Each structure stands twice: as C-alpha cells, then as structure tokens.
Amino acid sequence: MTAPYAIPAAALFLIGIALAILVVGFCYLFGMANARTHLMMTSAVAVIVASMFVLIFELQLPFRGDLGIAPTSWSGFLAHVRLMDMAGPNDMRM
Asked: Do 46 and 76 reside in the same domain of the chain?
C-alpha cells in the first residue's frame, strides 16, 4: 500500500532525466581552454549519470533480472540474521 501523496515512479524517472540533462548541460556551459579536455570531462559526467540510471532501473526489482538475488540466498541471509538476533554476543560466529 502506498501513501496517497506518493510521487509515481514514472514521474520520478522523468524528473531524474530532466535533472540529468540539466547537469550535463550545465557542465557543458563552463568551457575550458582545451576543447578536448572539456569534452572528456562532460562525457565522463554523462556516463556517470547514465550508469546511475541503469543501476536504479536494474535494482528496482531485486529478485528479477541479471543482477537479481536468488530467493534461496535471501532466505539464507534472513535465517543467519535471525540466528544472530537470538544468540548472545559471545555466541556470534561469521
């Protein structure tokens, strides 16, 4: 159940894309004496922003896709955390 005042995911992506274009455009506005260096730096910012969008998109649903977590691994992790919660500080083993 989501809150009635929550922003839809599509709107968040559109806002993020608009801000990413603004950031890359802002980087492009500040020129440097060497055009090649300026292009490299602006391209690096664009690649970083694009890779963040890819990570956000891929990790939105953590149990699906190529980067997904297997349900068995997650269940094992939860069992380990519960065991650590029940045990005392002297009994903890990793």
From this structure: no
